[in-house]
Amino acid sequence: MILITEVNDVAYELDVKEDLRLIDLIRDVIGLTGTKEGCSEGECGACTIIIDERAVNSCMMMAHQVHGKKVYTIESLNKDATLDQLQQSFIEKGAVQCGFCTPGMLMSAKALLLRDKNPSEAAIKKALEGNLCRCTGYNKILDAVNHTVEVMKE
Amino acid sequence: MYYRPKTLTELKENLSQIHTLNCFLSGCTDMVLKMKKDGTPEKMIDLSYLDALKGISYDDNLFIGAGTTLTEIIESDLIKKHAPILCLAADQVGSTQIRNTATIGGNIANAFAGADMIPPLYALEANIHIYGKEGERVMKIQDFIIDNRVNALQIGEIVSGISFKPLDYNYYFGKIGSRTRVTISKLNMAALVDVKDDVIKDIKLSFGALGKTAFRAENIESQLMGQPIHAIHDELFMNLVDEKIPTRASRHYKREAIKALVYELVEELRG
Amino acid sequence: MSRDYKYIGKNVPIHDIHEKVSGKMKYACDMALPDMVHGSLILSDIPHGKVKSMDVSKAEALEGVLKVFTPADSPKVKYNSHKWYAGHTTVDDELIFTDHPKHVGDRIGAVIATSKIIADKAVKLIQIEYDNMEPILDIRKLKEENKQVFEKKMTCGDYQSSEGMLFKDTIHTQRVHHAAMETHVSVASVEQGDVLTIWAPCQVAFQVRLVVAQVLEMPLNKVRVIKSTMGGSFGGKGQPIIEPVAAFLAKAMNRPVKLVLNRQETIIGSRTRNPVIGTVESVVSSDGLFIGRHIDMAVDAGAYFTNADAVAMAMGKKSSRMYHIPNQIYDVTSYLTNGPIGGACRGYGSPQLHAVTEIHIDRIARKLNMDPVDLRMKNFLKPFDEDLFGGPELGNARIIECVERGREKFDWDNRQSSKDDGRYITSVGMACATHGNGYFSAFQDYLTLYIRLDEDGQVFMNAGFHDQGCGTITTMKQIVGEVLEIPMEKIFIPEVDTLVSPFDSAGTQASRVTYVCGRGAYEAASEIKNQFLDAVTKIHGGGHLEDGRVVLKDRSITYAEAVIDIQNKLNIDISTSYKYQAKSNPAVYAVNFVETKIDTLTGLVQVTDVLAVQDIGQAINKGFVEGQVQGAIQMGIGYALTEEVKVDDKGYIKSDSFAKYHVVNMPDMPRVEVMMVEEPDDHGPFGAKSVGEISTCAMAPAVINAIERGLGIEIDSMPATPEKILEALSKR
Q1: What confidence category does residue C1 fall into, taking pLDDT thresholds of 50, 70 and 90?
Q2: Chain C residues inside the 8 Å CB shell of B39
Q3: Which of C398, C399, C388 lies closest to C354 in space, CA to CA?
């Protein structure tokens, strides 16, 4: 079945199976492997991407559900050489260890900041409640998002 | 086969092509899990492109399209005004990502015993609007939910929306899970209470995850009607647990933990 | 204590952070090789039995399925994934595929297909008929029947004749899942020259090579293991679990094979932290001195032997390294059950040992009406004290200082009382732990490092390094940079590839990497620094290094200019293969002070404040130390409160998904303040000691102690779920 979609502002017209999940479309068909699969049931958030300025789990959607829609993955955050402020803050605050949760964390945080330029710490925690990390204990991730908010204010 | 109807006419056409239940995709948060276990249905109907299932409107009754996401419910001014209990409950479902895609129609049709959106709809005495190849019908939510994960839909039918007459009452929704957020309810409770001068004029109480389906605690409601707030006491609720799940191992915990919901309800009513 | 270092102690982000934040980092699951096919495992859905028959016809008929492997196809060589060096005596009881599954999740076979989706579908189409056998799950029963597969006793003094007040507790710890965000994954391919090449996120590439060569009966030099980027391990990828399977399948198919486990398969089919039942009996004087102690540990090894011996011993070895206990017995037995397999897990027995003993010590304090910190302070070992069980020297053991400084910082003495606002109780607790720094005195512990100063002035170092996401590569760069006075961006250190990396005896195990390998890096860098200066002296009559330049009598030149001179004039390069052997294995300590907020109505506990004090020796990278500790505290809270791979009384696994296995998420995670006590060790690089494992060993008992103190209850079995807390409250 033909699927017409845009991923990171690139238009695709693809013939894909009806039972393909969105994450498989992104990773295997389009080849954007920054989006990760950690649990396949919407619990860990490693597969988080953005559709309509909202964070969603790409393991919990079918590929054909993005027909006619615009999808943004981690690879969209710094298409050119310039890092997004969130990525910069993750580096500055040392919010990355193994990095497997990082793309999802960044996309959840990005979706939050698209709609709320000045989120409270509680709002940040809520936006990231669906993203699990086993390495960092979240402290530095929270610092990084808080820092991004501060920088954006300036 | 993958159908993506954009209009009700197209939907009707597609509905006549299918011969199984459980073949609808919307937010997909429950369906993906189902498909992981049972495989992909041969024919699927994707409801997420149907504008007819979207939207919230108010005209004496509040109508919420089945395709409304939980995030849209939380952010809707109409729902905040007329049924804030739904915002409260929706906010406690899953994670941000889940709420961004999961729909109210899906939550209801999935008919999970621990679903968080169902008890508030019992309290609101909501009607479930069903659209099918044979036409439309409306039924009360308690008739719609038949058992844990069993609903009243026939083959070729979908939930198209819910409606209810808003009640300008005090409201409360609470749940107990195994962590603060992103947790499946071990117990949840919805309450709509009309209190005047410390007296309970009307009360609608419903529970989830206490037995196979949500239910209205009519016995407690009738005992509290016309009583002062302090008549709401733990015993009533602990007895309810004993009565509903007399043999379950989880009874011991739930009969204690229900006190937390009672505590919060009373706090809410006292303001 | 601040020393004048250029790179040591500084906050430098992990070396590959740019790739990680931009989604460009390739993990094994992202790999695609030409002609690659995909595997899915056929796992047992019963806890114990024999495979009577397998109907694979529907799977084989599915388009895209290339082959279905059954137990009949399995190599016959039995092995033990725990075997990490040649000559290591192990109980070999594991097969690639078995017809006698011993736990839910045991490997029965695999499907190879052109896509992962097809392979998964095919597995569902396979029908297996089993002869069910009675599962064995209760280690108490096995203990009564003396059915241990391992036992050991360690003693010092004379426990039987020690006199004083007697205290006794029995505490159960649960089975937990490592919960690395990356599941288990491996890609294998027979490459040119018939070299079986395996890419895997692993902790011990040379161990993977050893086990694969053994199972597939191949020469070691024809097995090449390349460590891929690690998406989290915590010991879970410390044993070769699916690497031998992927290697076998690739060889059998003669095509590259990618094998990725999903979360459920990883929970049930990889390794877990061993559950234990620990009984501790202490003899204490009326003024709180520990006179004697008898620890009796029963370890549930799960369905295969793996490290049933090693983990049992590792626990015991920690019991004599924190308190002065003149008369002590450590008795341990391990049992095989039909539960998920035990294995390495961050702390390797220490979290279990300390859960049992530190909860017990708090209870003694309450019974003696003493402050639990005061009681501990009376009994701690001092720096350079002796380990009465005969273990390696404790070295600069700074537990006392950790507790003293933590007590003050946390304001422990003023936060003692629990305040009760009707529903919530806020209470504080603490616990201490000790761990090691490598294998010295117990097992071989050495590595060879190749290091070269290139003619462009940059450094290349090659050794068996595995970065687990903890920052090993950056740590090594900081060490080498400090020694050679060279900026870190001029140093390149790849991760291990057994084809080209020098040998390393143990990989990322036993908290040895910074302490042992880091010291190796220090020595290797020092060796080429000497070579470099000697050569410079030969040419220029003297010189020294300063700010990344070679300072001569009358001028300074770049490293590049100096090396070019050396190569041209002396006909040599500046490089060495340095052999480093561990020289000690001192104790390292962690102390956790915690505040909990307990909902007495629901039994839910939130940890609201944490101070983690680390006896770190010297932090090489402060940010990494904090990151390790904060992550370790997250694991510790889960261990205390929510995490359990639940096996029901029939052997079925009840928590095989993240929906049912709750790790702590951001809303439940407190701020963790990390305090570093920096008193250098003699043999660690710049005095550094370990942090990754020790930091998770004290947290669970600290939380349990806070709950017990706050509520006046006893939690005898972890985790302290709301159900257990309310039950204990109702019995209070």
Answers
A1: very low
A2: 121, 124
A3: C399
> In angstroms, rounded to a whole number, what is the distance separating the alpha carbons of residues A126 and A120?
10
Distance (Å, rounded) from C-alpha C216 to C-alpha C211? 8
Contact C642 B179 (CB under 8 A): yes
The answer to whether A150 faces chain C, any CB pair under 8 Å, is no
Decide if pLDDT at C2 tops 80: no
pTM: 0.98
Exposure of C205 in the CB half-sphere (CA atoms within 13 A): 29
For residue C343, count CB atoms less than 10 angstroms from its CB and return exposed for 0-12, middle for 13-18, buried for 19 or more.
buried
Q: Are the CB atoms for B217 and B187 separated by under 8 Å?
A: no
Beta strand C65-69 with C107-113 is antiparallel
Alpha helices (H) along C170-255? 205-215, 243-253
Alpha-carbon distance A38 to nearest alpha carbon in chain B (angstroms): 14
Interatomic CA distance for residues C201 and C390, integer angstroms:
36
As a whole number of angstroms, the distance between CA C111 and CA C63 comes to 12
User: pLDDT (tens digit, 9 = 90+) per residue, B15-63?
Assistant: 999 999 989 999 999 899 889 888 889 999 999 999 999 999 999 999 9
Q: Which residues of C touch B241 (CB under 8 A)?
A: none
CB-based contact B146:B152 (threshold 8 Å) = yes
Q: Which of residues 118-177 of C touch A (CB under 8 A)?
A: none
Mean pLDDT of chain B: 96
Is it the case that residue C732 has pLDDT exceeding 90?
no
Q: Which chains touch C (3 or more CB pairs under 8 A)?
A: A, B
Interface membership of A123 toward B (CB under 8 Å): no
Residue C281: which H helix or E strand, with range? Answer: strand C276-284
Interface A-B, measured as beta-carbon pairs within 8 A, has a size of 79
For residue C205, give the nearest of C581, C516, C507 by alpha carbon: C507
> Is the ipTM beyond the 0.95 threshold?
yes
Residue (of C370, C669, C666) closest to A127 by Cα position = C666
pLDDT at A80 over 90: no
CA distance A42 to chain B (A): 7
CB–CB of C68/C56 below 8 Å? yes
- With CA atoms as reference, the chain B residue closest to A41 would be B33
User: Which structure tokens are listed for C460?
Assistant: 């290349």
Whether residue C667 has a cis bond before it, omega within 30° of 0? no
Q: Which residues from B are below 8 Å from C727, CB to CB?
A: 252-253
**In this structure, are residues C431 and C705 in contact, taking their beta carbons and an 8 Å threshold?**
yes
CA distance B132 to chain C (A): 32
Cross-strand pairs, B169: none
Inspect the interface and report whether the beta carbons of A134 and C183 lie closer than 8 Å: no
- The chains found to touch B (3+ Cβ pairs under 8 angstroms) are A, C
